[in-house]
Amino acid sequence: MSTISTALRNFKEPTKEQLTQIFFSVPNTPSTPTPAAGNGTDKTPPPSQEIEKMDINAVLSLGVQGEEDSYAGKLYIMAPYLAFASLDRKSVRFTIPLSTIRRVERLNARAGIYALSLSTWHGAKIIVQLTSLRPTADLFCSLLRDALKVELQRGQMRAVKGFVKTCYSEALISTTSTVADNEREDGSLISEEKEDAAPRESTYHGGLGLKFKFPGDPKKLREASKIKLWTQYLRVHGRNLTLLRYPQCTRLVQVGLPNRLRGEMWETLSGSVFLRFSNPGFYEELLEKNKGRSTTSTEDIEKDLHRSLPEYAGYQSEEGISALRRVLQAYSFMNPELGYCQAMNILAAAILIYMSEEQAFWLLEVLCDRLLPGYYAPSMHGTLLDQRVFEALVQRCLPIIHDHFQEVDVQLSVASLPWFLSLYINSMPMIFAFRIVDCFFCMGPKVLFQVGLAILKINGEKLLQIQDDGGFLNLMRDYFASLGDSAHPNSPDPRARAITRFQELLLVSFREFSIITDEMIQSERRRFRSEIIHSIESFSKRSAIRNLKTLGRFSKEQAGLIYDALYKAMCIVPPPPELQLLTAPALVATGDVGTMTEEKPETRIGLKTFQFFLSEIATWARDERIVSNGFQRRVDREIAEHEFIDRLFFFWDTSCRGALSFQDLISGLDGVIFNDLMENIEWFFNLHDKNKDGFLTKDEVLTLSETFLFIFRYEVGDAYLGAVSRFMTNAFEYGDALQPETGEAPIINEQGGETPPAVPTNQPYLNLATFRMVVLADEVLESFFETDLSASFRLEPLPEMELPVSSSGLLGDIWSTIATDNNKKMFNMFTDEIGKTIGKHQVVHRPSIGRYTKLEEPKLRESLLTPSMRHSASKSSLSAESTQTIATSTSTSSTLSVDVNVGAGKGSLPSSNSSYTPHPMLQAANIASFMERTPFAIDDAKDDEDESDEDLEDGENDDQVMDEVDAFLEAHDSGLTDADKEVAKDLLHAEPVK
Amino acid sequence: MADSAASGSVDKSVQVKLVLLGEAAVGKSSVVLRFVSNEFQANKEPTIGAAFLTQKCRLEDRVLRYEIWDTAGQERFHSLAPMYYRNAQAAVVVYDVTKATSLEKAKSWVKELQRQANPNIVIALAGNKVDLVQASASSPSVPASSESEDEADDATATPGETPSSSEPESLRQVPREEAQAYATEAGLLFFETSAKTGEGIVDIFTEIAKKIPIEHILAATRGAAGRPGASGSRPGAAAEGSVNLDGNTKPKDACNC
């Protein structure tokens, strides 16, 4: 009754390139907007050529008066985006789509200076001086040129015009001035752009606030002056798609965005505007395609719609509710794996006050995917991880509070979890929370941590008084309720009295906790990730075991081992996604339950995964080759494939769904592992009795013999082979004897399908009693059923699986690039080759049972030839062949390349499914020949798979290094000498090269 | 939040940490709200992680101060639950009588609590929304204000419900006997409740109060109680927010606040 997810194992630390993309809010090109197969739109992402990426040192200056500063930094081309960041990574930065660049000119300047002037759609002139070597700069320019051409061809350049009309900032600017329009005329690549004027106003996107009012008192919020400041800023520095972020931008954000502009600034600052720009119509299509669809997510959403910011007027009306419903549903359709998580309703409701549905949809995507990674995932690992990180930061920055909490056993997350999960919207009065959200979108996720730390610090003294979780929560509740109060009510200075507690909070957040950087959070996340994954996994393991309907005769520990094997199998051979969550509809489709009982999603595995699972547990379900080549001794394990395993799969699939759940596996194993002799015989019989009529047909007897041969395929010596032969002989003898109307010779060995046998192969032939008798007549088979069969299922602790990450730092990186599976394989092959050449290469198959290692006398094999088996021809051919194989194997002398035999054996094993009759003996021959060889000492062979477990913990030093680098960067803010600044200034007035 | 009826006299009241668990939308929050606060607001803020409420009760000569942790019901919040039920002395596991699967979930919660939580924890099983399965004639709602109508939204938010008065019993998916039998077997207190009508709500807390080893808790917390300014000392709101559990046989005049 539970789901098992291996998603956490797939986590990969972002590469440096990805980190850059994340920093610049560049959508990751192919993956982001691909809707889940089948239920989304089939809109393919634009055919992006191999995306050229390059960065180059550059000095940025702005071609306008009033902005004299120049900044050294790096210019990145990440088609279809151009991005820049100053050296300190925060003062100045921009990300603009190439399609908004209307003209690029090489500037005629002093000798040796390579500078470009870029004119954007909004008329801003960006001047970049490429300070790298000439060839590098040339290369960069040619890349830029090519990328621009591509954008032009894609028609993106045209799209810009229509798109910006959806932005409020355009309306804002155009009503106050026409400067931008004038600027645009000369730089434009598009001709039809003159007719704009009046209709603009009505086309921009906006949120519910336009109709239902924005929270807060506009006068108190000083909306008018904020709008004025922003208008000035946006006019000069570009807006929406082309916004350049200078220090003033951040400052303006920190005093709070004006309500009317807030939605657009959120999408611009977070980069979700790029998603909306590059996926026009996607949102509507998505909703259209999934119209009327009902999922568990949509049900969950429905429950919460009326509980999302219910105090806001917009959500007391159907208009607001249905907008919220559509946005949340659309997201759950696009990302069914995540679906819907409580708290997303609060976020969506909050942003819908300021943005249109489409804007909100894309912002939600950026939130869930990039800004709050893993927060809302089914395991909520991101939330848990960041809580752990937060706790560590509290320990580091506020040790006294941390110690006190430890002492009185108060858990920080009790209060802080909702802060992070709902971006403080659920905790603080909305007007304050939105200002934190402003900063969050502008400055990144670190803001959540900074504010959290500041809250604790400000309340430090009171926090030291609290004794339990409840007290902590009450204190926080009171504090949040008082955020609007004066921070210094008793101060004589009226200006000090005017400072609210909220202002104080922001001040403390960004002043005292400016040491918290995104890099620090990244590295803390790396530090704790495996710990968190581990605890989530062991939690779900415990609950999976607890939720079993029955443990059978297993102890909890044993069930745990079975779970581990299942989990490993799922990691390595992930079940197809449609199997993972077989829910109610699938159940109804199979029609085995009359009433529509709603069933919980439950993880089930398919055949492939099952094969791996079984290979972990049953010795005969794997091919283990013990290879020794003089350098090393290792066990190569491969998953065996045989009809028997498939048979087992369907035998255990009691609910006939073509997939097994954890419970099925437990029950299935329970049905064999604890069996005694008689039970095992019956189990084995039933397994092969397809139609469950209590009789095996002749075909089934043959199949059963195949199974024996499969299980015994690596046994040393031919005792087992003999046993199987005797079994067949006896089975057919008895079977025939018991047939009411027996006619001719029962054995149909060679002719196979050609001459129809007396008893049709699909008629009931052998019953359980007879089968039992035949088995018990043979010592080897008897002992197989008595103990070996059950014992061949082994529940052993698996070696701890490597967690995906956590080897950070240089050494870790190098190690992880070296110690890949591929390289291990190559190393193994290499040593094998050497081993072969020096004659020390040996490969031995590890037997599945390994009991009769000593040969029984060959005469036992002679006794195969009981009267009923008179086709001496076959016998002679058999022995001929076997000697032949032996000859070949011995002729290859000391290298003993057993692989030849293995190949032959393996080839014939699976193929035998279709035509049974002649094959078993051939196989027997192969196996016999194989067994003739001298047995090797194999018992002491050890697994040596645990090579790469070292070197996993050296992330520590990196932090320090990063800190130093940061410190260095702080010291060189704009990174320019005065002379450089001169040059930059000159460039502002430079003429383009003719 | 509801008024956290902090105690004026820390020493006399016994703090009892109680956690509410159960599948989403079975009405956990409604049960708490019915118990804690009469001034019900429609569509209270959703439960993220857990909501925290307090309520003071009098039982005989004792004052109990319930610290109630109302947890989020969505499955993915499950892994957070241990944070809330650790150290809890009591738990109310809620299911919905009109939804069979919710009892299954409740059972799994009970199992988890019995394994992972405080060994002496007192667990009560509450089958909520019985108002939906009672003949409409026999559901005389409590002195119902318009607010408790709103509450119904919350308590009955099962898809496709609309309790048709014709045959209300058909909505029931969990027979009382079955749940009762399970509760007896697992050693739980058992109630069928309706947050909408108030039926059975106070009984839960009364019975828990009776069953809880108060002396034990007192002994354990005595050390901490002496310290000044302990947990949320907000005097003033003390008296009026409390519920008298004494001799409260009729559930309907339960909430006297």
TrEMBL record, chain A:
Region (Disordered): 26-47, 860-895, 941-994
Gene3D superfamilies: EF-hand, putative rabgap domain of human tbc1 domain family member 14 like domains, Ypt/Rab-GAP domain of gyp1p, domain 3
EF-hand domain sequence ranges: 676-711
Extent of Low complexity compositional bias: 868-895
Swiss-Prot/TrEMBL keywords: Calcium
Compositionally biased tracts (Basic and acidic residues): 969-994
MF terms in GO: calcium ion binding; GTPase activator activity; small GTPase binding
Domain of life where this protein originates: Eukaryota
Transmembrane segments: none
InterPro entries: EF-hand-dom_pair, EF_Hand_1_Ca_BS, EF_hand_dom, Rab-GAP-TBC_dom, Rab-GAP_TBC_sf, Rab_GAP_TBC_domain
Acidic residues compositional bias, start-end: 941-967
Limits of the Rab-GAP TBC domain: 256-444
Annotated PANTHER family: RAB GTPASE-ACTIVATING PROTEIN 1-LIKE, TBC1 DOMAIN FAMILY MEMBER 2B
Name the UniProt record assigns to this protein: Rab-GTPase-TBC domain-containing protein
Species whose genome carries this gene: Roridomyces roridus
TrEMBL record, chain B:
One Pfam family cited in the UniProt record for this chain: Ras
Keyword Protein transport: no
UniProt cross-references to InterPro entries, sorted A to Z: P-loop_NTPase (IPR027417), Small_GTP-bd (IPR005225), Small_GTPase (IPR001806)
CDD domains noted in UniProt: Rab5_related
Biased segments, Low complexity type: 136-146, 155-168, 225-242
GO MF term (any one): GTP binding
Record's signal peptide: none
Region (Disordered): 136-178, 225-257
Database matches in NCBIfam families: small_GTP (TIGR00231)
Protein name: GTP-binding protein ypt5
